[in-house]
Amino acid sequence: MPLPLGTLALALSAACLPAQVGRFLGPTEAATRLPQGPDRPAPTPPLGPGQLPKGMHQHVGLSLPENLSRWLYWWEHHRDAFAPLTTTPAHDGTKPASTRATIQLPEALVPALEEAIEAGGDPRITSAALVALAKLGTQRPTARRTTTLQNQLAATAEPIREAAALALGIAGDPDCLALLCSLALDQEAGRQATNCSAGVPLPTRVFALCGLGLLVEPPGHSDAKARALEVCRQLLANTKPVDHDLANAAVLVLGMLHPDAQVEAEARLQASAVQLLADHFVRPLAPEQLPSQAQCAPAIARLLGRHHPDSPRYRQWFADALRGQGASGPCSVERARACVVALGQLGVPPAADTESDPDHQLCQLLLATSRTHNDPQTRGFARIALGQIGGTANRRVLLDALGQAPRAAQSWIALALGVLVYHAYEQQLRDSGAFAPDLEVGAQLFALFQSNQTPDVVGAAAVALGLSQYRAAAVSLRAMMKQKLAQEELSGYCAVGLGWLGDGESLPALLEMLGAARRRPLLALHVATGLGEAGGEGVASRLVALLENGGKGSPVGKLANLAQAIGRIGDVRSVAELVRVLREPSCDGLVRAFAAGALGCFGDSGARSWQSRVGGHCEYRGLGRGLVGEGVGVLCWL
């Protein structure tokens, strides 16, 4: 059973709670756009509370409302990339994610997960334990662990098969390369492994393909990357509608092939991957395939980055496409969104404020797009792109626009400013080991937070204040969090802002709010997120107790973020408590599954989650059902 921890694990009203979905919540446009026909399923009809589509296993989480163009979906999809900034190591049993590989974990951890898998029974517990075991396997891979994962490919329950396919990639065992390729391509070895003589089920193939990307992504896997490239080439050559999700996943995997451009063989591999994506981007395809085709633009940007010798050419290519002057013809909404997302990752700050400077021209194009494009999502993405590119000129443009733009734009501009200064701080930390807060940006965001009456704008300003490390806002954030208790989203994002500020004085208030949120699931979800970033001595144990006492009837979103918060804090003293919950048969199965998921977080050896490695910096509105749709996709898993 997928566990919705992190990316877009939220909803906007408690009325959404009974619906089934997962980590990225609700049906995306790409997931529901397939027209009816003999080879294409009819759209899923609306469901009543607690109902599931026929043949679909339940995924825990919350539903998205229809309006996906709000800033908060971008934030929830990308927040894993924004670790709280610090210049000093953590204390009192907590460790930054980057040092977790050196933590000595209790010996009972791995056996407890293996016992949960071998016991069978509840598919939610088994699948969560499989992914958790794989994440721990990145530290201590063993043949026994790989065998355990492989054996579950033949499980009767679909979510267990999917978890096993994904887990093989997360675990990072190079001996699994051939098997993952066979699963993704529906070859005989994959059919035998899944005991499906009629063919590997399509969802399992999508999970295996994403697992393949995770397996080959780390440096030094040249031959494996070449194999993955050929798998993706074969899948993209097949344009049948049933393969839409596979095509989407193949594009994401190509964006994960980060070769060392300094090595000649790998440089050729990189060029081949970029060319394959570029060719697919301009292919004439059916309208329902536009979302996955458009993903090629961000994938190319992920492969090249800002400073590759080919980056200027592709900056111009996507800028022309955005203007409707490219080889692909008039720019559809799907392509416009994807091009803007790509330009945010490819662009560099202008060296000169002159019309002849191509980088200045690019930022002017994004600025014009943010103001005049007819699609509100594209306008929002363009504002974020300016923040991602950064630089003095973009900083000034965003600051000037903050107080003058319409309310719907102010939330995106505030978040873009938070992104801009956060990345500036990161660069300062790399250069000197310290950063100087941007007080002008912080003061402007704080003024917006205090004066604006629109909850959506105030919530965005709260998150941006956390990113900008404007600690003078902590008292006001705490006060707003308590005063707006009935407005769960606003109060919750105040808690998120406090978490990213790392303000130790806010810990008691956050814990108090978590207790007050027992019947406010959306608020509890965000407060748990804030606590997960803020950390602190004894906090993890409190969260484990709340998780254990969840039981039947507790909102799954709250349980999800409690589990994620425990893992983010990284207090090794909570491992024994989680193992006890996992092994306790009297505990609700869902609680035990989330305990397993939290245990897996202790295997994260880097700041980036595997979900962000797969889906980070993509055009998330175009992700299909196999990745996010209705909570049954890859990114729904913890």
Q: Nutshell version of this structure?
A:
The chain has 638 residues and is an all-alpha fold. 58% of the residues lie in helices and 0% in strands.
The percentage of residues in β strands lies in: under 5%
Principal-axis shape equals globular
| Protein structure class | mainly alpha
Count of extended strands: 0
Mean pLDDT: 81
Give a quick account of the main beta sheet: strands, pairing sense, barrel closure.
Answer: none
- Low-pLDDT segments, ≥5 res: 3-66, 87-102
Cα-to-Cα separation, first versus last residue: 10 Å
Radius of gyration based on Cα positions: 23 Å
Total count of helical runs of at least 4 residues? 31
Percent in helix: 55-70%
Topology of this protein?
Elements: H1 29-32, H2 71-78, H3 109-119, H4 123-137, H5 143-151, H6 158-171, H7 177-184, H8 188-194, H9 202-216, H10 222-237, H11 244-255, H12 264-281, H13 290-294, H14 296-304, H15 311-323, H16 333-346, H17 358-372, H18 376-389, H19 392-402, H20 407-432, H21 439-451, H22 455-467, H23 474-483, H24 488-501, H25 507-516, H26 521-534, H27 539-548, H28 556-569, H29 575-583, H30 589-601, H31 610-615
